[in-house]
Write a structure and sequence with these properties.
The protein is α/β, with parallel strands linked by helices. 37% of the residues lie in helices and 14% in strands. It is built from twelve helices and 13 strands. Strands 1-7-6-5-4-2-3 form a seven-stranded mixed β-sheet, with helices on both faces. A four-stranded antiparallel β-sheet has the order 10-11-13-12, covered by helices on one side. It has a two-stranded antiparallel sheet with strand order 8-9. The protein is globular. It starts with 17 loop residues before the first helix and ends in a 25-residue tail after the last helix. The structure holds pyridoxal-5'-phosphate.
Length: 428
């Protein structure tokens, strides 16, 4: 079934039958990461819920071709978007605030940095600065790079959370925004949001909480009785929050929220262009044409799950987290780098241990696991579906530490580098 002509040679002269194209794609995909078996992490948030899958496929299919660029033409999408923003604001401890749906965490963070920059420029700061932990997601560095904003990255305390004194020491006359993560991606620990937000408020600065990862899990984590330090709009001084619905909201890719405490701050996002022969062009986010399926699916999934469903899934994530942490603790020579506040963490060699973590990673890869490699160890991010994989993980990890040897294979980078050499990169 392999076509002799590939797209890399340009378009084929004649049309190819639909079934041939589908068969070719199926063949291309055989070596792709299988996320359904509970051995993959971080790139896919597997709810492992057949009803949810049916709902998402059905809704996505029916909204496939609509365009959320002009919501006045698609009033259902407008209504869904407004309701999603309201639901997110309440979930995040706010009341009547405002925000928007974006395509993902990176865009939400971009918009938060953009509004902070505009706010700072109104105060006469031409080149503003933001202060983040060194663990803050690279989306902040990317936003600063695009937007001509400076970023000071400060060190961590002994528990992996940002050192608040270091944050304060980094504040200068150009600083407009302090950032906290809830939690940070590398270690899954929540920064001391209350302290950072209080410091921001005292100095008349903005405070953004990056809850891209935790925004759709921590509220339910708290409701099922797990300890959660205050981190959302219930904390005075928090001015904006990013939260990805396409992570622990269990919706497929392409939907996140950026929420503001003060609706006037959200208005800074609005782009308005009237001087065009095509007419008025107004937009709140960076994209023009926007896909409808992520919006419609988010509305459907939130409506379906409710608190009950999200708590049920949070319990499964908690069970998986306890199981994976216990499996790591049971192996001599391994330890979690920082005790996590959620379902995300790094583990590596215990202090003084001889364990070769690269050999462990290679052995786990060879056994069908796909643990991400970080400079300090291996990264684990758990979804509901991982609760079925705990025993296998424990057995394979013990075996990897006892028998693992380096394979010499190149590690997969956490990067997206399309173009000249697509074979060498993973999408992140
Ligand atoms: C995933 C993530 C982001 C970026 O989100 P994308 O949806 O990948 O653009 C930002 N911050 C944290 C903590 C994240 O985990």
């Amino acid at each position: 079934m392999t076509a002799e002509h590939t797209l890399a040679d340009g378009l084929a002269a004649s049309s190819q039958p639909v079934d041939d194209v589908l068969a070719e794609i199926a063949e291309m995909r055989v070596d792709d990461l299988d996320w359904r078996g509970g051995r993959a992490f971080s790139l896919v948030y597997n709810s492992d819920d057949a009803d949810l899958a049916r709902l998402e496929h059905s809704v996505a299919d029916s909204f496939l071709h609509e365009n959320a660029l002009n919501p006045l033409r698609y009033r259902t999408l407008l209504r869904m978007e407004i309701e999603l923003i309201e639901a997110a604001q309440r979930l995040l401890g706010g009341t009547a605030g405002s925000g928007s749906l974006s395509s993902g965490g990176t865009e939400s963070i971009f918009l938060a940095v953009y509004t902070a920059r505009e706010w700072a420029r109104e105060r006469g700061i031409e080149r503003p600065r933001i202060v983040t932990a060194e663990t803050a997601h690279p989306a902040f560095a990317k936003a600063c790079h695009y937007l001509d904003v400076d970023q000071t990255r400060v060190s961590l305390g002994g528990d992996g959370r940002v050192d608040v004194d270091a944050v304060l020491a980094a504040v200068d006359a150009a600083t407009c925004l302090l950032v906290a993560s809830a939690p940070c991606y590398p270690y899954g620990v929540v920064d001391p949001v209350a302290d950072i937000a209080a410091a921001a408020q005292e100095r008349d600065l903005l405070c953004h909480v990056d809850a891209c990862l935790g925004g759709w899990l921590l509220p339910f984590w708290e409701r099922i009785g797990r300890p959660v330090e205050p981190w959302d709009f219930r904390v005075e001084g928090v001015t904006s929050i990013s939260a990805d619905i396409h992570k622990y909201g269990y919706v497929f890719k392409g939907v996140s929220t950026i929420q503001y405490r003060d609706p006037a701050m959200a208005k800074r996002q609005l782009f308005w262009f009237e001087d065009w022969p095509g007419g008025l062009y107004a937009s709140q986010t960076t994209a023009g044409t926007r896909p409808a399926p992520p919006i419609a699916a988010a509305w459907a999934v939130l409506s379906h799950l409710g608190y009950e469903g999200y708590e049920r899934l949070a319990r499964r994530v908690a069970t998986a987290t306890d199981g994976f942490l216990a499996a790591i603790a049971a192996v001599d020579g391994l330890a979690v780098t920082y005790p996590p506040d959620m379902s995300v963490f790094e583990f590596g060699p215990e202090e003084g241990s001889e364990v070769d973590i690269v050999a462990v990673a290679d052995h786990m890869d060879a056994t069908g696991w796909a643990l991400d490699r970080q400079p300090g160890g291996l990264h684990v991010m758990l979804s509901p579906g991982h609760d079925r994989a705990v025993n296998q993980f424990a057995a394979d990890l013990a075996d990897a530490v006892a028998n693992g040897t380096r394979s010499g294979a190149a590690a997969v980078p956490y990067a997206s580098v399309p173009g000249s050499n697509p074979g060498s990169a993973a999408s992140g």
